[in-house]
């Protein structure tokens, strides 16, 4: 209590000192041990990258669910035999997983090649026109709202520390040590698609013939609701809107393929 009273007296007696002295130490203190939000900022990009991969995995599983569900429901509308349904389901699973893997491999490989080319160009410019690159970095920091003096100071210190990292960060937004791996991306897509595709395949084959399609509809829609909620949670979007969107889309896909199977059966195909 006594300490609090002394502090209150100091605040009233020396207001200019108490308000002015701490300010320079906040932005410029090199030994600042604050454990506030900035403590975790170096890890933000890593967390974001992991969330992106997880979200991509959820979306891959969603593709597997919808694709194979539509396929097996369409075949089940035409035939109640397990053989054709199993054949169509497994073929759709394998084809979809391979297609996803190849597409992801090509896409990520192209992205990585583009990033490498940009990094090589930036390194060449730094080697041959360092002054022009420094002026460019200063201008970019000014565009972000810094004064010319501050921008020049920041750009100079960053360039002295690691010119290449400073330039590729603000100009390209690329981390040279964290380029995407096309093989990992391809395997991730194939695995997530396969896991998702297994659900409708099991749901259509496990029950008796009379309830195969209804059981598959229920299982698939529940799974889609789950993947929609998870993807929305990871992306910070509305879960209700995401769930409705993905469930309606999956239901339409199964209804359309089931109707096509029925029409082919009526036509005697």
Automatic annotation (TrEMBL):
The keyword Chloroplast does not apply. The chain crosses the membrane at residues 58-79, 85-106, 185-205, 211-230, 242-261. This is VIT family protein. Its main location: membrane. GO terms for biological process: intracellular manganese ion homeostasis. Keywords: Membrane, Plasmid, Transmembrane, Transmembrane helix. It comes from the Bacteria. One of its GO terms (cellular component) is endomembrane system. It is a multi-pass membrane protein. Pfam families: VIT1 (PF01988). Residues 1-48 are annotated as: Disordered. GO terms for molecular function: manganese ion transmembrane transporter activity. It is found in: Endomembrane system.
